[in-house]
Amino acid sequence: MLCRMTAVAPLLSLPPVTTLTLVRDDVAEALAHAEALVAANKHGEAVAELEELWLNVRSDQALALRQRLALSWSEMALGNLEHAAGLLEQADGIVRAPRFDASDRADVLFRRGCVDFQRGNVAEAINELTSAIDLNSQSSAPRPLVAANAHEWRSRCYQFRRDWDAAGNDAERALDIALRIADEPAQARALFQASLVAERKRDWLVARVNAEQALELFRKQGNTLAVARILNNLGGIDFLLGDTESAETHLLAAIETADAAGSEPDLAQAVSSLAQVYLRTDRPAEARVRAERAAELLAGRADFRDELVNAQLVVARALAAEGDTDGATAWLDRVDHAVDALGSTSHRAAALIARGDLVRSLGDPDTAADHFRRAAESLQDLHF
Q1: In a 3-state reduction of DSSP, which class is residue 180?
Q2: How many CB atoms lie within 10 A of CB 231?
């Protein structure tokens, strides 16, 4: 009797089990396709597929976590920061289940740090990224890519705070880990941050070398959006090195590539950079038209407030150069509003200098000197 039941039971239960397995495999395959869209920066398509998958994955903790992480990343990339934060709160709830370990929880913390950085909560972002690094190291199976990613994003935080040594150290750690695990996308991202740090430290030749290495890797990977961003930075570096012709070539290529990638914020950044070149080479009218377009594209993107400020400053300075002081003043008022929301010392100083230049041109050197002094004080590290 027992033998008969043992023989019959698998025959009776086999179809449902096989069907469930096949269904889960199909869902997992669909989820992997959506994750590939995220990796390829096709975030609009990714969101559509991921949202459609939710009903099929929410009862499976492992798949549900992957769906929430992927969807939150695309929502962050699209500028929907509050929605991304909410999705990560749900992911945090999922990852507390016993089946997940410290490295899984570290991955969620890393992503929360990224979103908080994009929201402008830099102190909170640093805390979360640091906790992610520490928690990952405590795992029985640490994930090197989580550590590399957390160091890379913490470098961005330290750059915002003008702590170049800390930013450089994190970029170097991210690169070391990426090289050790032979992860070329992570290597490219770390090199990009290392280039940005070198640029801010005025090591422009080092910045260019790092950017060129990152560009080669991003092209190899077919990452069009990252290629556009690197081309934009190379244009700025070339200009700082005195090669205006190469700068314009790189920036025009950045504009074309960002447009092909379908990213309005990255298109705006490249257009704004080209406007900066035009402004600094005595072409204010051309600079103003392009900077106005960049500011228009960046309107409403809280995660690109720094670039919005840059574009608005170019418009204000271009108008001043054209003799439209009222227009320049109005745009500087917009700059002040954007800087208040951004909270960046560097951008505040740039706004004060632009205001000082404007009032000096109007014959008020005393007020101009006050603006310049305030800009210098905001950037100084010694306060006593």
Answers
A1: helix
A2: 25
